[in-house]
Specification:
By secondary structure, this protein is an alpha+beta fold. It has two domains: about 130 residues, Ubiquitin Conjugating Enzyme; about 150 residues, PH-domain like (Roll), CATH 2.30.29. It is built from eight helices and 13 strands. Strands 5, 6, 7, 8, 9, 10, 11, 12 and 13 form a nine-stranded antiparallel β-sheet that branches. A four-stranded antiparallel β-sheet has the order 1-2-3-4. Strand 8 and strand 9 form a beta hairpin. Helix 6 packs antiparallel against helix 7. The protein is globular and about 60 Å long.
Length: about 300
């Protein structure tokens, strides 16, 4: 059975690589990251879109995507990530979210090949450019997904720092984390620190910045409170020696978005009353370690 999976996986990879020969301005190559696990890099050169599209809103940069194929593909669906910023066109794609489902537009059933996925990307991009809908929350984060470090640091961010997450506020038990803040999200990653690099980097918590309803500072500890849903909230405790910089970054983001209640919170470092953030409630997911710690 293993040899069959390996054969299917290799067949899909070869099919992807052959696309470079069939399509002008398309570059594809593969990198093994583990046994029978590959990252397929897909580069649509900017001329690909100007050649195909009559739209006045042409893309003026190369688009880079990463397709993650595991040993059990196509039984389990792959992950697809964008590594090119298109925020100037009103699209937020390269923030580390898996955008596969938005591209294939169907429930995964194992019948689709990696080649089919790649061929659907240009049409997806074109629809994004033409759509007037909010495109800032496209894709989804996967809790416990393991990122490659070099892939993680390519996510455009306002803040990226090593911190300690206090997973039990009563005992003070803390674990090493990466804290990343993008223009839209608050992300926490666990990791193992190796001699040459970091490994085992897993997403353990994420929330929309706009579901944040409180910031409490008691150096070096910070409590960030998020609206979990209309009935309850969730607190994340962080210990860091970079507190001033962290708050300044948040202040910069919130001022740019006009989120006055959080600007006031940062400037006074005080607890905030609950405010209406219902528009963003769907963008928060619990950190199971945090919940477990608080219930101990």
């Amino acid at each position: 059975m293993k040899s069959l999976h390996k054969e299917i996986l290799q067949k899909n990879i070869n099919s992807c690589l052959n696309l470079s020969k069939e399509h002008k301005y398309l570059i594809i190559y593969s990198n093994p990251i583990k046994s029978n696990e590959y990252l397929i890099t897909i580069i649509y050169q900017k001329n690909y879109f100007t050649h195909k599209s009559q739209n006045k809103k042409d893309i003026d940069t190369d688009l880079i995507f990463i397709l993650h194929l595991t040993h059990n593909f196509p039984i389990n669906q792959p992950k697809l990530f964008c590594q090119t910023s298109l925020t100037h066109l009103g699209i937020e794609l390269c923030d580390g979210k898996d955008i596969l489902e938005e591209i294939i537009q169907v429930k995964w059933d194992g019948k689709m090949s990696a080649k089919n996925i790649i061929l659907k990307i240009p049409n997806f991009i074109q629809k994004c450019l033409e759509s007037k809908a909010n495109k800032m929350f496209i894709g989804k984060y996967i809790l416990e997904y393991e990122y490659e470090y070099n892939m993680l640091i390519k996510i455009p961010h306002q803040y990226f720092y090593k911190v300690e997450q206090i997973i039990n506020s009563k005992s003070g038990l803390a674990e090493k984390r990466f804290l990343m803040i993008t223009n839209l999200f608050f992300l926490i990653f666990s990791y193992n620190e190796g001699y040459f690099n970091y490994n085992g980097i897993k997403l353990v918590f994420f929330a929309s910045l706009f579901s944040m309803i409180g910031i409490k500072r008691n150096e070096p500890d910070f409590e960030f409170e998020f609206s979990k849903n209309k009935f309850s909230n969730l607190s994340i405790y962080i210990k860091t020696d970079d507190g001033d910089n962290l708050l300044n970054i948040l202040l910069f983001i919130f001022k740019g978005r006009g989120v006055d209640y959080l600007i006031q919170a940062i400037e006074t470092s005080s607890k905030l009353p609950i405010v209406n953030v219902n528009n963003y409630n769907d963008n928060i997911v619990n950190n199971k370690n945090e919940i477990k710690g608080e219930n101990d």
